[in-house]
Every structure is written in C-alpha cells, then in structure tokens.
Amino acid sequence: MTGFIEGIEKFDSPGKGRGLRVTRPFKVGELLFSSPAYSYVLSVNERGNSCDFCFNRKEGLARCGKCKKAFYCNAKCQKGDWAMHKLECSAMNAFGENWCPSETTRLVARILAKKKMMKERCVSEKLLLIEELESHLEDEDNEKRERTEADIAGLHRFYPKHLEVPDRNDLLTLFSQVACNGFTIEDDELSHIGTAVYPDVALINHSCLPSVIVTYNCTTAEVRAVQDMKPGDEVLISYIDLLYPTDDRNIRLREYYYFTCDCLECKTKSKDEEKLKVRKQRDPFEPHVVNNMIRYARNTVREFRALKHIRTPSELLEMCEQSLEKMGAVFDDSNVYMLHMMYQAMGVCIYMQDADGAIRYGQKILKPYSKLYPPYSLNVSSMYLKMGRIYMMIERHSEGIRALKKAMAVMEVAHGKDHPFLRGLRKEIGQK
C-alpha cells in the first residue's frame, strides 16, 4: 500500500487477486482509512459551483484570470491547482467553445503530468501502484475501443506537446486502467462532481453484500464499515447499484469490470423475488408474461439512458409515465423496474420545478428503497435528502425535517458525524 494503515493489510483474495482485509475489529460507522486522490478532475458541469482544486462548494468563488473558466476558493487553492490547471488553461483560451476533451481524457492527462512530476522528484511508490492497477484492455469490445480512440484523439488535440504521451499500447492500457479503477466523486444527493483515481481504494474487491462504503470529503476518499468486522474479514465494497436483481447486477459487472460475482447474495438470490414482485391477483401471472415484461423493462431502461440527453423533459416524463402504466399491469409498485422509472420521473419533475410531481413519485420510492437496499445506503439517504429539501422549499417544514433527519441517520454512519455534509445538514434542520 502507499503507506502504513493501521488495522489493514493486503492479501491474495481467493479467486479475486489482490484485496484488503482487517487485522483488528471495526464497528459500524468506524473509519478504516482515508486516501487522498492520486489524481482527480472536476466535472466541467460543476465549474463555477465548486472549487477546481478542493471541490468545496461555495458562493463567490474566484475565477482564473487567464482562462476565466476555472474557479477557486482563494489564492491558495489556485496556486495548489496550477500544476494541473496549466495543462488546460491556455488550450481553453485557444479553442474557446471548441475545447471539449472527455472527463476521462482530462483525468488521463493529469495522471501523465503527475507521473512526470514524480519521476523528476524521484518519487516511486505511488507511481508503481498506478502502473499496477488492473487493466482489461484485452476484454474490451469494439464500442469501448472506439470510445478510447476518440479519447486518445482528444488527448493529442487538446493538450500540449510537452505532456510526454507514452506509446500507443501503454496509452491504451492507461485508459483501460482508469476505466476500471476510476471513482466518481458525488455530492450528498449523488450528483456527479468529478472523477478520481485512488490506488489504495482500488485494491478493494466487490461484493453485493459490502462490508464498507466509500464516501468523499472534498477530494479525499474515506472508507467506513457498514458491518461490524472482525480480524481476517475482507474489506468489500459494491462497484454497482445494488437495487437490481442478481442477473442484472452481474450483466453490469461483466460489462464494466469483466467478472461475475459469486457472493452469498448472488448464490442464493434471496432478494430477487422481492425485487421482481408482481401484482397480486386471483390467478397468478404465467411465467412467460412476467419474463416478457422483464425484457420490456430492461429495454426501456436502456432506451431511456440513450435518450436522456436528447429528448425534452416533457418527452422524457411521458416516456416514464407510459412505461410505468404498461409495467404496472404486471409489476407491483415496489418492483425495481417500476422504482427505476419512478426515480427517473422524479428527476425530470425536479428539473421542471414540479414539486408536487416529484413528491408524488418520491413517496412511492422511499419505503421500497429502505427495504431493498443494504443498511446505510447512500441511495436511501440521497432520496430522503431530495424529499426533505423539496418539502422545505414548499414550506411543509415538519415533513421536511423528518425526511432530513432520516437522511442524517444514514449519513452519520456512511460519512462520519463530522463530515461537512453533516454540518450543513444540521444547519438545514436548525440544529447546532
């Protein structure tokens, strides 16, 4: 590991390669370790809302005097970011609105710049860990290869010649490593803020029954226990959204991480029946009717993702409503595919500033979410936050405070009681 972390050790995890395990007991909510990012980048959509260096969200951020597109808390943050920002500053000026490298390309550029600096300073330990990150280059399909080719073209087009870009094979490997090991930094409502690489955290293997959760304090990753752990227990996180049934989870794991999970939940499929719940009726649905509706639901989910940034909000909401009506003839409201489309509909309503519509969908989501997700799930806390803030906005304060307190109960475990998100939430509730 990049340094000595008390109570944690690397080991060879059977069937999984390298992993981490604990050497002492940890209680629910206890911090196992924190890890600064090796390299990170703020999402372009966050510029002006968050500091490019520390990711702190605040009003009155100072703008970079040269490019006018990067924002900072103060001169200290601007100075701290200059080694990375200078890769983009002049290019953003030169290309103007045509400057459009992907977030992955931007992160790779920063990793290359960081590696160059570390070589010059003769710092080898973290450099070695970046080189050791797992890559699945040989497993990538044509679509992913084409996406990587476009990202590489962006790297050559938008970045200076002195970046020291490696040869083609090494560059392909690096992009694959970032794809497999990159972490999405999110806010308290799980909105995307940026992307980062954490070599230590990347050692943690996946399980659909995770023992820890990763949250973010500015750009630092924090790993906390969500189960009581005893010496010898493996440190396990979930790489994917755990709402969905076993087959769906493993399709996603194979697509993005190239393995199939064999955890206890995947072996027993103990929650699948509940997640795929159908409506009660005198004569049960024939299996082929249920299977056909599952296929329809999966296709609808994929179609919605493809059209999300193309269709108008009204069109997207209509798509949600039509699919909910069709699925609702077979599925119970707590079925995960129903919940998925309700969640999308809620997001569209929030975007359209339709508070009543957002609350209507949110109220149907909350109870099943609390039941189907593992304890201390950020998906649950983010839903309570959304609902609480909407209630407060329309002056339904008692309902708002109840929802925000339920979010706080989850976040105190997942984020730690002293996290900035919790301090802000206490102010929202009116607590000191």
From TrEMBL:
Q: Which residues form the signal peptide?
A: none
* Keyword field: Coiled coil, Metal-binding, Methyltransferase, S-adenosyl-L-methionine, Transferase, Zinc, Zinc-finger
Highest taxon above the source species: Eukaryota
Q: Which residues form a coiled coil?
A: 123-150
Reaction(s) catalysed by this chain, per the record, are: L-lysyl(4)-[histone H3] + 3 S-adenosyl-L-methionine = N(6),N(6),N(6)-trimethyl-L-lysyl(4)-[histone H3] + 3 S-adenosyl-L-homocysteine + 3 H(+)
Gene Ontology, cellular component aspect:
nucleus
Query: Per its UniProt record, what SUPFAM superfamilies does this chain match?
Result: SET domain (SSF82199), TPR-like (SSF48452)
What's its top-level EC category? transferase
Q: What is this protein called?
A: [histone H3]-lysine(4) N-trimethyltransferase
Which species is the source of this protein?
Cyprinodon variegatus
